[in-house]
Give the backbone structure.
Amino acid sequence: MENNNKKSSVFYSYCLDPQVKFETQEEGEKVILLLRSHPFTQIGWIFKSILLFVFLFILNFFIKNLFDSGGIFVINLFLLVFILSYVLFNVINWYFNVGIITNKKIIDIDIDAILYKEINVAPLDKIQDITVKSGGYFEAIFDYGSIYSQTAGTNENVEFLDVPFPTDAVQIINKLISRRYGT
Amino acid sequence: MELKNFFALFNNQGISNTLFKIIMIVLAIFYFLYAMVVVNQVKIMKKTLQDKHNPLISFITSLQVTVSLILLILAIFLI
């Protein structure tokens, strides 16, 4: 896409012309932009994971008199694996929660707690209004925000939450709409 | 199991050890089930979004299943 020098940045959360395909991709449909939540919004679980590692370290001072070496080893292994699973769970949630902008439509793929999947699709010609919401210190510093698109008819409204460079993404959508439908 | 050994389970040390072992085995079973669910969900999500990093995610989730089995074996035999 011209006039956009952010080719692929912020830890794969803003990827222009990415080499990805999706389930409902049509013939001749090209993925223009792939969006994920800004990595800064993931700081909560990253911080919790670090705290859990510290907790595990401290716990060893208290349990060394309660269990034999085999028991301590197994407890440590269990807790370590659970913490790593918590990290993996959050990485998967982040990785598969994507917003996709193609030359024909915009798609919001959400997975919630790994178990629930929701895909919202809005064809470009059905998009009536696009709103960018970005407010707060961190949003301003790291340049991220949410994009809400309203669609005509019975199509679901599509939301991209906490994505990097939201105004650039909206510019891309607007260009695609005007190029394709001349509005 | 001899009757003497069976009753030995119920002295204070025996009960706590047995309880600990049961808790660890139950946790390991639940963790194994969780790991299997994650593997299946990632398989589904891989079809939904085909990206170059998908093989890495699949490998890590498969590793998680292996680790959960190791935990189950350790819980049964080591403690």
Observations:
- The first helix of chain B runs from residue 3 to 8.
- The helical segments of chain B are 3-8, 12-48, 54-77.
- Chain B touches chain A through 31 residues (CB under 8 Å).
- The CA atoms of residues 10 and 36 of chain B lie 35 Å apart.
